[in-house]
Amino acid sequence: MPDRSSGGVPADGTPGRHGQMGADPRRWKALAVCLIAGFVTWLDISIVNVALPSIRVALDAPPSALQWVVSGYAFAFGLLLVPAGRFGDTHGRRNVFLFGAALFALASAAAGAAPESSWLITARVVQGAAAGVIAPQVTGLIQQLFQGAERGRAFGLLGATMSISTAVGPLLGGLLIQFSGQREGWRHVLHVSIPISLIAMVLAYRYVPGRPAGKRQRESMDPVGVLLLAAGVLLLILPLVEGRAWPGQGKWLLILAGAVVLTGFVGWEHWYGKRHDPIVDLSLFRRGSYALGTLLALLYFGGFTAIFFIITQYLQEGLHYSALRAGWVSAAFALGSALSAALGGRVVVRFGRSLVVFGLVLVTLGLGATEPATRLVSGQNAAWAIAAPLFVAGVGNGLIVSPNQTLTLSAVPVAEAGVAGGMLQMGQRIGASVGIAAVGSAHGIYAASFQQALLVNIMFVLAALAAGVADVFVERRAVRRPG
Question: Model-level pTM?
Fold first, then answer.
């Protein structure tokens, strides 16, 4: 067990603070490849938000289709994380990474060439699935190649890169639409990830280590578990995304059905796990910090990812901002994240889960101040009023994502790194898809719907804060317990 009083990052039997014995000399170059991959998969989350109004006009897409463009990516992303993490653990992460990057580039090309909205949604789902193949290889490689304090710094750099890509996304998307035109600029927005994916493939082939000799092969990929999880989450999302299009109240029974299916999924995993390797290793949740950290990630991403969706919709559709100007406002949150994420990775060993709780408090305060700012300053001056509290929330965000990931994975054996990291990120992506669906169900005039959606975001973050506080108490109790 890690020393939870010092933040919970174990040394795994090797020097952790100043170096590590027997470390792979290519580890920092391999990390650079991981950062490129993290950049491009997160870029495609934020960059598409400023393109949604252009997509609506060019493809005559209904509001539900725009939600699926974003939440479909997050949904498929989350669903593939654990099977892909397991496959990378046992078959070597480099080949799985290369396959995911190639599929991501092809799906990006298909999305940018979409003639109508259903084509675009399908391509975005495939793109999200490809991102789900790549992501657990990245976290698994960091677990494999780094230990102790170096691992915290590596995750901190990954978090900073993701925050930078989130900041660059709206600005780059706005620039592409500004110079390419409203009708066709969105296609360039979706194509921009193709060259980045190709660069990542070339560098991965050279610097990412292959599968160690003699690695044990696992045969089962738990297809029934995958289908039950997909069906359960899809039933939760459907009435939220399609709520305005489907009349009547019967659609809300789908949420109850989703809860039943997910309960069946847990029962199946418990039974299946006694005989084979399940998609979700329930034994990992016996580790208190892992269970609470994964719950925190699911809840927090339900609010965090949806912020950009609602802000760009409000600014562009409600206040008639250009894509570029909306991108500048959205970047305030991501800029704050970029400034604090690297620091969070460095000090997480010292402060532990308390650092994450502090970050959640900052996010709550920032989002809480955003809503009254829209009422005090309206019209074209709203951008300045929104940007300041969003920056504060962004600073908090940088102290949450990477530190929580480091702490949550700290007690997980390296052999299970891909699966554990995939399960954690699966929680993030499923939370993101549910959160986007939930805020998209707000309706009314743009100012009112923005306020309703922002309140939903805050509720998700407060729930995550409760999970973080609970883990702090668990941490302190473990330290005080004799023996």
Answer: 0.77
